[in-house]
Amino acid sequence: MRDSRSRIRRRNRAIKKRNRQRLALFSISLVLFLGLSFKFIKSVSLFKKNNNSVAKVNTDLGGDSEKVNALSTKEKLDQSDVEAITKRLNNDKEDINDVLEMTKDLSVDEESFSNKLQEIVKAKELATIYKTPSIKSDVITEVPLGAYLESYGSSEGFTKVTYNNQSGYISSELLEKATNENTFKVVDGILIVNRKYGLPEDYNPGVNLEAMQSYEMMKSEMNREGLDIKIISDFRSFEDQKKVYDSQLESVGEEETRKVTADPGHSEHQTGYAFDFWLNNDDITITDAFDDTKEAEWLKNNAYKYGFILRYPRGKEDVTGYNFESWHFRYVGAETAKKIFDSGLTVEEFYGL
Fold first, then answer.
1. In this structure, what is the dihedral angle of CA atoms 192, 193, 199, 205, given to the nearest 10 degrees?
2. Residues forming the active site
3. Which residues are in the D-alanyl-D-alanine carboxypeptidase-like core domain (predicted)?
4. Rounded to the nearest 10 degrees, what angle do helices 209-224 and 294-302 cross at?
């Protein structure tokens, strides 16, 4: 009886072992079958070489127009381009996202555009900003006649622009240059505003979003170190600056006013890139008292890491045209801010203005 039970157990173990082996063999066979099938499909139908229009490439990729939206900027791809795409599609190490990025690179000449501001332009009529340099791509927003836009270069009939903190591409023929000798001076991606270079009365870009985000990161770091600041002034329109100037003029006269207050159209605040910082727990009364605070000292030594420069340093009054202001900072981007900070120069000195 005992031998019979032992034989049954051995038989059951043998059956289980054989089933596991069969299951493993089936799994391996299934994987090999699917792999070969997919490779066959790629080489024969869905991903075959094609030198026709972008629409055909779209179809070959499965008809997902959103995924291949970047392809629509050119009606045709060169044969060499198609071969390169097909080669990558047939490489098992590449996935579809890599290929879509490759086709995007082929259709958009990003080297013709820049991450730095090139100039300020103006819309000659109602115009549309698109997500990519193509009228077939998604619409980001519309800009009215006479609107000012930041331009980041042009290529193949499109200009890369920013308007109301939204970036995209617009037909170049709908734009005209707004810059003249003393207005909208742009140097190394920076919109220069000082005693000499100004802005027109109708230029109202609002607060720059990138600058505001950088401020928030800087403020968080200061909070971690037991310091706290707030913004007491950011974007200021031409009209607002005129009110400030007139009020100061009435209080202290023209000579003193010009030491501390910009003429309307010559305030950095109108660019949307300038900020006045102050103690968060203090009432707003701008005095030299801020100079001796830990917050002011931290900003002087660290704000550049977040893209801000102290715009009117001590001892540079004859260069900037303004008294030292420990609270006034200008956003220029982290890379440029570090260069200017390391030089110890003002914007005017650094760029020879």
1. 70
2. 325
3. 208-333
4. 120
